[in-house]
Fold these 3 entries.
Entry 1:
Amino acid sequence: MISILDYGAGNTNSVVRMIEKVGGKSQRVSTPGEILNAEKLIIPGVGAYDHGMGQLHENGLIDALNIVALEKKIPILGICLGMQLMCNRSDEGSLPGLGWIDADVLRFSPDHLANLRVPHMGWNTLNISKENALLPLSETERRFYFVHSYRVTCNDASDVVASTHYGEDFVSAFQRNNLVGVQFHPEKSHRFGMSLFRNFLEANCA
Amino acid sequence: MLKHRVIPALLLQDRGLVKTRKFKDGKYVGDPLNAIRIFNDKEVDELMVLDIVASKRGQEPDYSIIEQFAGECFMPLCYGGGVRTLDQAARIFDLGVEKISIQSAAISNIKLISDIANRFGSQSVVVSIDVKYNWLKQPRLYQSSNRKLLKQDWLEFSQSAVNAGAGELVINAVDRDGEMCGYDIELITKITRSVSVPVIALGGAGNLGDLKKAVHAGASAVAAGSMFVYQGPHRAVLITYPPYSELENLLEFDNE
């Protein structure tokens, strides 16, 4: 059973449907008690950084999230804003992030953007730099749907799983032990996203 | 490498899929759910479904059919038609739709754009700019719900929509709708130079070369209706979408 965090910052429905499509079961969770009972957790999310963090604080979810992430070490997958919330901080907001991964969320540098538009929106590819359970190197054809205005940069290079190019290289997937984050939307990425969810369902540790 | 998106734009009328010419004479082209399933199988980049009668008739969006669409889409889905309030938008996002396209409501109440953007993020608000030429051959902002050319300058309106929080604009050339004679390159050039957000070109695409020209003119994405639902000079209904590899070669981003 996969628990999907419903904290008022994003569309959980698409994630529910995708998991169902690949034969998994999911439930939405929104209270500390439900989070503490989760076996595997997905943190989706769209919208502004402070809104997302604010919702976690307002609903009193931070302690429960820290316990499952850092003590119980259940597999957790952060998607888009969910990935960014796992980092230390973001240029987009003033509230600190969850700080699970030593990474920061920055603006795209204008010097590299030239005539590129922000948000980075559309289908892009990944350059996978280390073997991992969700995005195995053996899968060669792969593309994902991105939509984001800020990008993740890891302070510890060993956390980086994949990078993507948009004017400059940014971290499109990271992993530290049980914690995985992806900047793209696997729930909106056809069979490539289905494969990621299937791998998350099957993975013993993420 | 990022690729420019290629988006089938489907028109909905009374739960049927139709295709218009110059925004008129909607011809029935099939069952929308069936079409969406086919586009899903063909792994389209994104899908846009526009209810062309909801605003005209002052109707609520048809939530039950939108939910069915969202259930079939494993790619981003944009819905437009009849959305006038934040509550309606919230209900549609909750059904599993990523983006909402607004036009009539944005023209009469630009604050709706900010309201949706503040709550759901700019990436979720698409503002549709329909442009039609007047008898002096000047491009004018067109409100499709009441078929009126408006006094407000179309480029100024585009910029105010972006300032209000629109994350994307659709530029639709009304006179080219369904004509398959190529996009209005001049409109695309002007609007992409005036705003910083991604612009989707719509209206007039007839072949792959047209898509490429729109991208060269500055469009971030290209949308088309007839090109993906008709085949051949007699407009036989056949749903098609080019293979990804073909589009990748045609529309690769200059990404360096």
Entry 2:
Amino acid sequence: MILNLKNSPLRLLLSKNKTAVFDDKVTLPPFYEGTIEAFSQLGLFLMKNGRREPSIVAAGYWLRKKHLLTIKQQYHDRCNTAKGVAFHIAPGNVDTLFFYSIVVSVLSGNQTILRISNKLTQETQFFIELLADFFNDHKKHDAVYALIHIIQYQHDTDHGHDITLRLSLFADARVIWGGDAAVAEISEIPQKIDANNITFPDRYSVAVIHLENDSEIGNAVNQLITDIKPFYQQACSSPKVIYWLDTAQQLQEKFWLLFIEKTTKQLSLSTSDLISQLVYLQRLPLLLNHPVKNKLNVEKYNELHKVDVEFITLDAIKAHCGLWTLLSLQITTLADIKLFSHCQTVTTSGIDVSIIEQWQQSAKLAETAKRFVPAGQALTFSHIWDGIDLIDSLTS
Amino acid sequence: MNWEQLITLPVYQLNQAEKMPLFNQQLVELAHYHYQHSENYRDIIDFLYQGKLPEDEVPALAVRLFKHHLLKSISTEDIFRITTSSGTTSQQVSQIVLDKENALRQQKVLATIMKQWLGGKRLPMLIIDHPKVIKNKFSYSARGVGIQGMSLFGYDHTYALNEDMSINIGAVSQFIDKHKDQKIFIFGFTFIVWQYFIQKLKEKNTQLGIADAVLLHSGGWKKLQDKAVSNQTFKSQLNTVLGNVKVHNFYGMVEQTGTVYVECEASYLHCPIWSDVIIRKKSNLAEEEKNGIEGIIQVNSLLPTSYPGHALLTEDLGIIIGEDNCQCGKKGKYFQVNGRLAKAEMRGCSDTQS
């Protein structure tokens, strides 16, 4: 089948040669050799030419051949054909997620159409330019390039709604990033029968840190910065809460002193963000004092606010807007940690793997947290996200 | 606070040395009053200022807080009215809790300020809106509140628009004809006046030829800025179409109803005696000491007693031009509003939709 959106008000990014005519026969086998080759070349290209943006370098690194082949191996006896057409709706809060969504979809062999926000950050624009440059200069990867479409349109107009509907009816899978509101709204738009609706609703993430001596502080600080600095801490997988596991106050004080040192002039917020941050801080006592009074204390470390709390409420998590606020709790054992059901990532630092595994297996936790990674890797993308195996979902 | 005395103060005649010690003392008292009477306010202060009100400043709440929480310094039984800000269905609205005393005070202060601009007598009043905009008695919208509040200063209230926002030209002509020998009072929201009145009359090539009128308008320039309409253009087109009309914009918000800031002949907004404006730095929200620098507007008002809205950080940009020396002769601070702060780049998790 062919979907012709030539006369619809949409913009095609990437290349002037592309047209808004989509053919569901244009697919490749999952983990096709040419795809892996193209992506690993692209990875090298991004690492070299995207140097000024760490997140682009990280994306390049993710594409190294060895890594792609490791993923391939996990599916060696299944995932024989691509779904067909995958329609992706990318989030606006994480600049590079659109790219991983494309990569996983194309690795699976799908004709991939990704709708991106109309308000692109400079980083995203730069990233898209690099993609266009790479594929325009490497014609041998045209077969892979033919699977990639990035589009923009005014989705909140009648025309935009019509485009979303036609793409949804055309696609064999729809991938919705962007939280509860987006998921609810777009999921109401009908799809082709048997099509997959893959959704990523609101999530939050936490960090658990255990420090025993001074020598561990440097690493722990670096890892926290890596996990919360990008995307203004607004990615769902950036920790919003720190649990201090049996860690001396004096080590925590040193931790924050070092944090200040390392982030001086590193974190900055626009005026609107400063106000949003203030709104959240002023709301916090109202959100945290139910059902009983919480004992609260706030400290400012450069642009970051650390808020000591006795317990956490769902309201305080739901209202969190990133912008570098961390709720901080002291715990004596991992069992003290109570997670809400929409917890996604738990990063850990200074804790024995065996202890984490044990904790992970406790029945209660399995239902909630979906991902356990070492601190510093909160934002590292995985093809299994929020407990959803994207490769499985995008192939048959 | 003794309002019997405060209300008798001249609106625009006290200079800095006369106003500020008195104003600041009252504001500090008011902050302590809310600290005692509003548990939420106390929780916020205790959290952000280590358990007590700071001595060197009166902390401002972010005005957006009233969109999320019902903040009050009175018991539920004493709620007389809850006013809300305007907003489309998708936006959250501010909720302002008023007791009878606070609501009356707002009216009284507004009346005293308006007298300065309209004179002591009620004037025949043309409202540039449609009559259905005032509906729900318990919960008014900002547009409804504005019209309701202003209606007190006029009589023979005539609505210039039909419900579909078209001009009710019959009613308008009749009104102007009836009152052609006296000063009339015209009121409306800036965008509505421009879009549905001035522009439509201009399209029809109609000139009303009004002999003597005062037009007050409010509601913000945002939509007109988008259309690149300056205050000057607004005034000159308005005079062409309507006739001899003195035009005064005013700045105010539902969170501090009563203390409005009216634009003088020199096109600057003036602080009345019961309120004050502070500019905060865009870089860190600290107080801007110098005049003439654009920043975020904080409004302080002595009126709010039933809710802790005495010091509010807005999301509007403005500049304090000077104090006590405006060419119009009024004392006190005078300033201009430069529009809304650009919306925070929506980077929140629910941003697929932008």
Entry 3:
Amino acid sequence: MSAQKKFVKFFSQYAVVIIFVMITVAAIPPSGLSIKYILQEIITRLGRNSFLVLALLLPIYAGMGLNFGMTLGAMAGQVGLIFAVNFGISNWHGLLFALLVGLPISVFLGWICGLVMNRAKGREMVTGYILAFFINGIYQFFVMYMLGSVIPMGNRAIVLSRGYGIRNTLNLESVRQSLDNILVLRVGGYAVPVVTFIIIALLCIFIVWFKKTKLGQDMRAVGQDMVVAEAAGIPVEKTRIIAIIISTVLACAGQIIFLQNMGNLATYNAHDQTGFFAVAAILVGGASVTHASIANVFIGVTLLHSMFVVSPLAGQKLFGSAMIGEYFRQFIGYGVIALSLVLYAWRTRKAAADARLGLRGGTNGSTKVSAVKNGANGAAGNGGQA
Amino acid sequence: MNGTTKTRRLAIRGGLLVIYVLLMVLMIMTGRRHTILIDNKDAADGSYSAINGMEVAIDRQESSEYYPGDRDKAMVQGQTHKIKVTIFDDNKTIEKEFKVPLWSDVMIISVPKLIAGVEPWIEPFTMAEQIQEAQESGPPAGETSFQSIGPAQPMEVEQVPPTP
């Protein structure tokens, strides 16, 4: 392979990461922020967001693409937190209670999501996205009407003045940073929330272990080729449902970790952007619709959030308005997802074209093999192309 | 699957469900937060009087100083707690254990009652009850009241000449 081809291949594979690193590094000097401040922010945001982003891995392994349906899990976590605040349960007890309440809801929602996605094979991403809108409607109805009217709420402070429905913003003061503050390690002026990172590390170990189990191997097989997996006796649909259920449950826990760090809950729209930012983070980290690893999660969260930290101030200094930086944030998030999907589609088409060319004997053997391999991924319709 | 396996599986699932529910109940019992009002006021009937000066600490929380008429609050989690009172006059320290009912959000501890041995020195506190009690006992002497007493009197209005 010529050097130019190698460069094109490398750039197409890591284009999102390279562009992101360039933008972030360029935005640091005009932002005027110190490296120490940026590092502390990144540590905090790693603890806050990594769990949510890790929830995306299993559906990718199972060939279901980026699980925008994780929003369902986030909603379940929020319902759990609403009940924890209603009962006045504070500290980590409140978080565990919220998880216990959210867990069955997220399993149920994940099961529904899995069933729907099994009927929309090859279109999982867009299906998950629209399904999240649908479930959002039910969530709004539940929180805005059912809570306080059908389900009694003892804590009048969180109920709207009309007597039912939850207030727009919920103060999570009773559970605020209760997980982060269990053990804080102070090293060189940096505060590290140890317990949060231990939980994230445990999840990473679980994912590594899970990939080696029978179910994990089945997921990989289903992700590679559903037809072959079915022929090999793997229950494809059941495996896919399990992948989505685990992802939804992890999203539930991730949203609870996220919100305890934030300290307040925007009742009606906190979950709106959950899937979107998690997906953007994993893509920025170098993952694609079909391939992702734990490393992609941490690289992505670090890069995306360092950009989030510097962009408002860089926007303020460069254009005289911090709002420009805020818009930039949104633009970059959607832009990254779009670019990544375009690159994925381009790579799949190129691989198929190379495979055709290879069959005609117009290219070397190595290209032929890799092209056929990539083509199999794309052609099987497991990529979850939106 | 034979009957025994099915029964065992059902029993295990049922057991797990019970553990799940028990865990939730445990979280409510150990994690529920209550507000404790610490009061240092005279009794209305004069049966006990406020402590001249004292330091009060709940559990391992930071202690606070109280003088006659003071009232402050402390937040506690769970149901069983300790109160430690150190009286400045004779440097006497009193420690008592108390329980907060699970569904009570706010409790009031009257320290003068506790020192005098008057029961109950810890009671549930509700704003509505306090307002009702205050209304029933009438306005305290020497304080401004916005309630009208007796028939309304015509107000004297100063006549001001019309301005040109």
